[in-house]
# Entry
Amino acid sequence: MSSRLNQTLADLRAQQRAGLIVYLAAGDPDFGTSLALLNAAAQAGADMIEFGMPFSDPVADGPTLQQAHQRALAAGQTLDKTLRLLASWREAQPRTPAILMGYLNPVLSYGVERFMQDAATAGADALILVDLPYEHAASYRAMAKQHDLSLIQMTAPSTDPERQRMILRQADGLVYQVMLNGTTGAADSDPQVMIPMLRALRQHTDLPLAAGFGIQTEEQAQALAQEADLVVVGSELVRSIQAGPIESALERCASTVAVFSHAVHTARERI
# Structure
C-alpha cells in the first residue's frame, strides 16, 4: 500500500471519522479544465480522488458518467494523457491519494506492466479495474504490488457469500462495496437497506470499507458514513458541474464537494 493511502486511512481512523472519495472522469470536458476541477475537488475537502480513465464502453456507469467519458474522449483524452494529467495534478496535490478507476481494455492496449510502472510514476496510489474478474486478478495484483499500488477489490449486493470470501482474501488497501445492483448514479441508495450490508461485510474483513454507487444526497452520504469508512460520490458531482455555464464549473465543483465533505466528516458526531 502506498504511504499516501496508508497515511490518509490512518488519519481518518485517528480522527474517528469517515472520509470522502470523489470521482471525476479524466479529461472531461478537456485536459485543462479537468485539471482545474481535480484541484478544486481536493482543495474543497475530498480525502481521495478517483481519476476515471475514459473508455468508449463504460458498462458499469450510468448516463451521467457515460457522457463524461464521451466528452473526454471527444476532446482527445487517452490513457497516456490521463497519466500526464495525474502527474500534473500530483505536483499541486502531493498528499491526497489518487485512485485510477476504469476498464481493462485500455490497460491491455497500453500494456499492463508499462501501465503499472507509469501509473506509479505519475503518482497513483491504487487502481480499480471494474471488469477485471477475481479469477484473472492475481497477476495484475502482483504487478501492482511491485509498484506500491493497491488493486482495490469490489463487492456488490449480488456477490454470493463464497465468492465474497474469495474476493476478500485477496483484497488490499480497502474494499469497495457497490451499494446497488445497477449502474453508477442510476438509482438512490437507501441507507436503511445498505447499512446492514456494510455491517455484514465488516464481519469478514478488517480492511476499510468504501460505499459507492447511487449516493446522490448529503443525507445519504451522512447516513452511510456512520458505518462506512469512506463514501464515494461521482455522478452527483459530475451532474452539479454540468448544471450551469462552464465559467462557473469550478465553483459548482468546489461547493458540491464541500457539502458532501461536511456531511461525511461530521456524520459520527450525530451518533
